[in-house]
Design brief:
Quinone Oxidoreductase, Chain A, domain 1, Rossmann fold, 6-stranded parallel beta sheet, 25% helix, binds NADPH dihydro-nicotinamide-adenine-dinucleotide phosphate
């Protein structure tokens, strides 16, 4: 059975050679354990941080050890009284086709409630991030203008749709004309901007947001965000959720000094980590599941087939090759 390990720590943009596919013996299970067969695997931009050394909110991956992320797996063997063969679970699992597990922190899934892959996206970490970042820090009010970057991705597409459900004017920023069209036509965004073809982001935001920006949900950082910052209103709230434009930087680029903007406008700018809001997960999932069920929330997934394709699927996130949640089907 195959496993994917960290081969080298990337310098700049991750390369296929930073990963290695290794064959291992199929694990045996002991009493109190389950044998899991991987079904779906989530690749996420934050894994880039774990591939590097250094202090963060989560431990770095070890060289020559399996990487891990959110996964959905089937219980194919059980010597654990809490789990039966045939059940599906989700949790932070290793990038292995098969693995044994003591059951701790595994959540059982109901395949009849939603497609299994949804538990890695709209009903998983990215949906929770969108809902909790927006409602706990952004606190958007009806009629306010919400701008979201990385808008056609897993988190961004859900943020924008929730903001619409809450009665806001929503402006999305994404990297292709096709994505821009999708934001407006499929998700109902009021305006959308292609940051790759826009030469003046400040002006583009000003035109798309005639009443200024009340909430900015930032997934990308860098120059895109510099343009948004010049348009914030008094008492604006900025959710610093992700900074994918900086994750591969080998030196930290210098941006404008934003302190005067924050002071002049009494802006709240807060870094967000979804794991700090675990007490709100149940409530968030119930809202997301309800909207999904009645069709008020569209879940978009880019599914790549084949365990071996995992490293490429991860690298493709930095090229914007995904629409919605990037998932590997094993
Ligand atoms: P996405 O599905 O949004 O995939 C990444 C997207 O980022 C790509 O599709 C691409 O879209 C865009 N992108 C890539 N490179 C750049 C760049 N240089 N500048 C601008 N955009 C770029 O991923 P997720 O929804 O999973 O994550 C979105 C962000 O949220 C990430 O920064 C991630 O780290 C963060 N996050 C944070 C969490 C937290 O708790 N703080 C939890 C989950 C995610 P395009 O074609 O538009 O360029």
């Amino acid at each position: 059975m195959k496993t994917i390990q960290l081969n080298k720590r990337p310098v700049g943009t991750p390369q296929l050679s930073d990963f290695k596919l290794v064959n291992e013996e199929q694990p045996q299970i002991a009493v109190g354990e389950v044998l899991l067969k991987a079904a779906y695997l989530s690749v996420d931009p934050y894994l880039r941080g774990r591939m590097s050394e250094g202090k963060s909110y989560i431990e770095p991956f070890e060289l020559n050890q399996a990487m891990s992320s959110g996964m959905v797996a089937e219980v194919v063997g059980s010597k654990h009284e809490g789990f039966s063969k045939g059940e599906f679970v989700t949790g932070m699992l290793e990038w292995k086709e098969y693995q044994n597990h003591n059951g701790e922190d595994l959540m059982k899934l109901d395949p009849n409630m939603a497609p299994l892959s949804a538990y890695l996206g709209v009903l998983g970490m990215t949906g929770l991030t969108a809902y909790l970042g927006l409602t706990e820090i952004g606190k958007p009010k009806e009629g306010e203008t919400v701008v979201v970057s990385g808008a056609a991705g897993a988190v961004g597409s859900v943020v924008g749709q929730i903001a619409k459900l809450l009665g806001c004017r929503v402006v999305g920023i994404a990297g292709t004309d096709e994505k821009v069209e999708q934001l407006k036509a499929e998700y109902g965004f009021d305006e959308a901007i292609n940051y790759k073809t826009t030469t003046d982001m400040n002006q583009a935001i000003a035109e798309a947001c005639p009443n200024g920006v009340d909430v900015y949900f930032d997934n990308v950082g860098g120059e895109v965000s510099d343009g948004v910052m010049l348009n914030v209103n008094r008492f604006a709230r900025i959710i610093v959720c992700g900074a994918i434009s900086l994750y591969n930087a080998t030196s930290m680029p210098m941006g404008p000094r934003i302190q005067p903007i924050l002071i002049k406008n009494s802006v709240l700018m807060q870094g967000f980590i979804v794991f700090n809001f675990q007490d709100k997960y149940t409530e968030a999932i119930s809202h997301l599941a309800k909207w999904l069920k009645v069709g008020e929330l569209i879940s978009t997934e880019t599914i790549v087939e084949g365990f071996e394709k995992t490293p490429q699927a991860f690298i493709d996130l930095f090229e914007g090759k995904n629409k919605g949640k990037m998932i590997v089907k094993i």
